Amino acid sequence: xxxxxxxxxxxxxxxxxxxxxxxxxxxxxxxxxxxxxxxxxxxxxxxxxxxxxxxxxxxxxxxxxxxxxxxxxxxxxxxxxxxxxxxxxxxxxxxxxxxxxxxxxxxxxxxxxxxxxxxxxxxxxxxxxxxxxxxxxxxxxxxxxxxxxxxxxxxxxxxxxxxxxxxxxxxxxxxxxxxxxxxxxxxxxxxxxxxxxxxxxxxxxxxxxxxxxxxxxxxxxxxxxxxxxxxxxxxxxxxxxxxxxxxxxxxxxxxxxxxxxxxxxxxxxxxxxxx
Length: 275
Prior knowledge:
Elements lengths: L5 E7 L4 H9 L4 E7 L2 H4 L9 E3 L7 H8 L4 E4 L9 H22 L3 E7 L23 H20 L2 E7 L11 H4 L3 H13 L5 E6 L28 H7 L8 H4 L16
Parallel strand pairs: 1-2, 1-4, 2-3, 4-5, 5-6, 6-7
Helix pairs in contact: 1-7, 3-4, 4-5
């Protein structure tokens, strides 16, 4: 049974894929779940359900973000541009937006944030390597750079203002793995909720970087150093392995998407220089 750890919990990016997956699950973590996204996207949320409040907010709009944050005890920040693309939208949502979020948290006394970082912060490590949270970032994209910025910003807000943050480097969170890469990176929706719950309820979080993955046999990431979070995944991509192999071709080992952990993000939008 999930402990209700907060009276009011803010979920940003509530209309997105992971926000949708968390919407019902996070109700077990709080008395009131405040849902926020861009006004146009909030239409997809429909009417507020029991124990929900919907607060539209563009992340680049500091005043709107403050209104969304005021009165919350913790934030699950899933908002922002979720993929590689042109820099300006990433700048507005993922860089200016995360600054606005932490400034609002500071002003309103919010002391714990679960920040949706990404495996693309370390996407230029090779798939033959096993990483810990202590490995330096090697972003594979402008998107990855924006998430690395968020990790650094949250570190400063912890050191200076005491706002605890879990930077969750989410792998690939879908109903099931879509390809062979996701056999290593897959994070089930239920394990995502278990991870967020652990980050919200562990007695001492500090500033913690943790990889978001299920209990997959093939893994590129090692969370042994962050056992204090208390996250224990219960799902595994292994049950999908035969089906994934049957519908996908043998990997081309000269393909950068196969060589690097970031997959297709390493060359998304811009051709790679031969390495």
